[in-house]
Design a protein that fits this description.
By secondary structure, this protein is mainly β. The protein has three domains: 76 residues, no CATH class; 126 residues, no CATH class; 136 residues, no CATH class. 12% of the residues lie in helices and 37% in strands. The chain has five helices and 27 strands. Helix 1 runs parallel beside helix 2. The longest helix is centred in the N-terminal third of the chain and has 13 residues. The two termini are 36 Å apart.
Length: 350
């Protein structure tokens, strides 16, 4: 992480930064310590400045001048783990990326903080090639470690059938998660061995006929009475079929209300650009209950009262009619499309 001398700091953000620094996060302080704070709490600022200075002696915290920062990073690049941030700024894309790195690859999940070994890749002429399927605006973080092994020390996957959803790794052993397929599922290893499974599992299913409860937050009767934050009410309705619609298409475009639980167990946060996750550990024999909670940003809820809003006694710079001319329309919120369950079998490959 790079913290510049002209960055604006917050007390809460600095507290988290100190925690990460003491946990070993490499931090570069470029151009001195910032003295700009988004706070008027002088006592809290003094304590935060003291806390910031306390991490300067840590081996993973470095102070450097403004100039030459890139040269400093390049100088130390090959002496530590390599991290690469992958971002898809276009439409859905599938392909392979060639990285100029040869350490054991790991995937870092920015949503959960988990670090998992990447099992499927190939190495050629000092480069590591990894295949990705990325939704629009989806990101991946890849770490190449020179000191750690990602899975099995002797072999890894270099190719697999499309029906392989991912891998499960434990104590050097590797299993492929194989979904149902019309043809045999195959995995080719770097050792030259090919493992084949005649997959006869259940095909994917779509969940339908949802019961929807909207928690609708409405403006108070008196917008200028700070004792009443909002009027809240619950609205229950049923959605037939398999395709879910946004709040506004259900007739509640001014509502605002993503968390997932299965059988009462909360599922860890997932990437909203590609909402796919393994829920096998939460399932039970028989009926399973899925609860999905989705919120909006209150954008739609503010539209009916836009011209009545005041901030510091001042009205919005543009009235609602002007915003409508700028195509300021109700936005899509909620769960859009189908919720699919894809069963898989574990297939031991290493």
């Amino acid at each position: 992480m790079i913290l510049r001398g002209n960055d604006t700091l917050t007390v809460a953000g600095l507290k988290a930064l100190v925690k990460y620094a003491k946990s070993g996060l490499p931090i570069i302080l470029s151009g001195g310590l910032s003295s700009t704070w988004a706070s008027n709490d002088e006592q809290a600022i003094l304590q935060s400045e003291k806390a910031l200075k306390s991490i300067l002696d840590l081996d993973n915290v470095h102070q450097v001048p403004y100039g030459g920062l890139i040269d400093i990073i390049k100088k130390n690049w090959h002496y530590s783990d390599v991290y690469v941030y992958v971002y898809n700024d276009g439409d859905f894309s599938t392909g392979s990326i060639s990285f100029q790195a040869t350490g054991s690859p790991f995937a870092l999940d920015a949503w959960t903080g988990e670090e998992t070994p990447i099992t499927e890749y190939s190495v050629s002429q000092g480069r590591t090639n990894i295949s990705f399927s990325l939704k629009s605006t989806e990101t991946r973080i890849v770490k190449f470690s020179a000191s750690r092994k990602s899975a099995n020390n002797e072999s890894h996957v270099i190719w697999s059938s499309d029906s392989v959803l991912g891998y499960y790794v434990d104590s050097g052993k590797v299993w492929a998660k194989a979904a149902a397929s019309d043809s045999a599922t195959s995995v080719k290893l770097s050792s030259g061995k090919t493992v084949t499974l005649d997959q006869q599992g259940q095909s994917q299913i779509s969940l339908g006929n949802w019961s929807v409860v909207l928690e609708q937050w409405l403006p108070p009767d008196n917008l200028y009475d700070v004792e009443t934050v909002a009027n809240k009410k619950n609205v229950s309705l049923s959605v037939s079929g398999f395709s879910l619609s946004s709040w506004k298409d259900l007739g509640y475009q001014n509502s605002s209300g993503v968390a997932i639980s299965i059988n009462g167990n909360e599922v860890p946060v997932i990437d909203i650009t590609n909402p796919t996750t393994d829920v096998s550990t939460y399932l039970v024999q028989g009926d399973n209950t899925v609860v999905i909670t989705v919120s909006s940003t209150l954008h739609n809820g503010l539209m009916p009262i836009w011209d009545q809003l005041l901030t510091g006694g001042a009205a919005p710079s543009l009235n609602y009619s002007a915003l409508e001319d700028m195509v300021f329309q109700p936005q899509e919120y909620g769960i859009l499309g189908e919720v699919r369950v894809v069963p898989y079998q574990l297939m031991r490959i290493i």
